[in-house]
Amino acid sequence: MEETLSRRDASDAVSGLGWRYLLGTLRASVVVGSMARAASVAAEAVAACGADADGHLRADLRADRVVLTLQTLDRAALTALDVDLARRISDTVRQAGLRTEPETGTGAARSVQQLEIAIDALDIAAIRPFWRAVTGYVAEPGADGPRDPLVDPVGQGPAIWFQQMDAPRPQRNRVHFDICVPHDEAPRRLAAALAAGGRLLDEEAAPAFWVLADAEGNEACVTTWQGRD
Prior knowledge:
- Pfam families: Glyoxalase_6, Pterin_4a.
- Residues 117-223 form the Glyoxalase-like domain.
- Its EC number is 4.2.1.96.
- This is Putative pterin-4-alpha-carbinolamine dehydratase.
- By secondary structure, the protein is α+β, with helices and mostly antiparallel strands.
- The protein folds into two domains: 7-95, 2-Layer Sandwich (Gyrase A, domain 2), CATH 3.30.1360.20; 114-223, 2,3-Dihydroxybiphenyl 1,2-Dioxygenase, domain 1 (Roll), CATH 3.10.180.
- Helices cover 28% and strands 24% of the residues.
- The chain has helices at residues 7-14, 35-49, 53-56, 80-95, 124-135, 186-195; strands at 20-22, 25-31, 57-61, 65-70, 114-121, 159-164, 175-180, 199-202, 209-213, 219-223.
- A six-stranded mixed beta sheet has the order 6-5-7-10-9-8.
- Helix 2 (35-49) crosses helix 4 (80-95).
- It starts with 6 loop residues before the first helix and ends in a 6-residue tail after the last strand.
């Protein structure tokens, strides 16, 4: 079994290829001009991965872009093989006159990202089964403890994780969004949120995450892989 890569090692290995590390995955976008071209790019990515495509590659096809995600799916982790597949895909896409990119600072609608929903709880083990049942979600491979996160088995919806509360806090929202962005996108995202009327509540844990709030106190965290190893 291949060794799991650290966040930093995975990020460093693929940043120059246009991929970004996000929540245990590698993700890149390929800008295209039609659904037919998107399908062609996806097919080329599958061919570049060969027999490893089924266990590592996911593709989201739209008329304007293909979003590619790599992970060793049966372990919910990244290995050297995922990095090799990213390199193969990027080379194949480049030969087709396109490129893999994170869409950071390019004027795109947004960069590649992943969304998490965090639920504050006093007794995580007591509420986790409810959220698992009502969402149809499952545990990640190797992480099915009573306090572990839940994920969409088809990889479309945001992950759900549970934050331990020390005491009831009825005055505060108990569900907040975590927006995982590329590490080099975080400054832009923070600036945009603050310019839109947001407030910075806490940056003690930065660059792992910054806690923001809207004008009514509803919270969201901008997160990156950095500061977590």
